[in-house]
Amino acid sequence: MPILLVRQFRLPAGRRMWELPAGRLDPGENPLHAARRELIEETGFRARSWKRLGSFFPSPGYSSEDDHHLAEDLRAGQARPEADESIECRWFTIRVAVSLDYGITVSLQLAEADLRTDLRRLSRIIQREGIRVA
Questions:
Q1: Whole-angstrom Cα Rg for the chain
Q2: N or C: which end of the chain has fewer CB within 10 A?
Q3: In this structure, is the dihedral angle defined by the CA atoms of residues 124, 48, 24 and 97, taken in order, positive or negative?
Q4: All domains of the chain, ordered by start, with CATH?
Q5: How far is Cα 114 from Cα 94, in angstroms, rounded to an integer?
Q6: Is the pTM of this model over 0.90?
Q7: What are phi and psi of 55, to 5 degrees?
């Protein structure tokens, strides 16, 4: 099952990291609208369909955002990153994505664990909901 990840510099980690496309909600913004906006900004892709995955806190230490969506039937387009963003995107199988090597420092191991946790949770939701992924 392919999954699209983005790689961008994260100041707290001091390095570029692979992660799921995501972003912050603008004040009063609908979570699905934010998901659509962020997918286009970071990757250029547009989805023909969206499925709400539910509510969970991937980073409760700094974010209260808990609404997550799965973009399906993606169509390539032109990315529109913000002026201060330099983003690379690449398709991975979930197996490869959860095995990405982030190095040996504790902070990088924690980042890897966070991504693995998010991807495993996403995989379970996809299986439970019977979502077909090409």
A1: 14
A2: C
A3: positive
A4: 2-129 (3.90.79.10)
A5: 14
A6: no
A7: -120, 120
CA dist., res. 96 & res. 134, Å (int): 16
The SS3 of residue 64 is: coil
Token readout for 21 is 């496309």
Per-residue tokens: 127: 């299986």
Six token digits for residue 60: 């409760």
Please list, residue by residue across 56-92, b when 16 or more beta carbons sit within 10 angstroms of its beta carbon and e when fewer do.
eebeeeeeebeebbbbeebeeeebeeeeeeebebeeb
Taking phi first (over 0 means left), then psi (-120 to 50 degrees means alpha), and beta for anything else, what does residue 46 get? beta
Render pLDDT for 89-134 as a digit per residue (tens, 0 to 9): 988 887 777 676 543 233 344 455 566 676 777 777 777 877 666 5
Give the pair of three-digit tokens for residue 85: 């963003």
Burial of 25 (0-12, 13-18, 19+ CB in 10 A): middle
Structure tokens at 122: 């996403």
Q: Which residues are catalytic?
A: 85
Look up residue 7 and give its amino acid: R
pLDDT band (50, 70, 90) for residue 76: very high
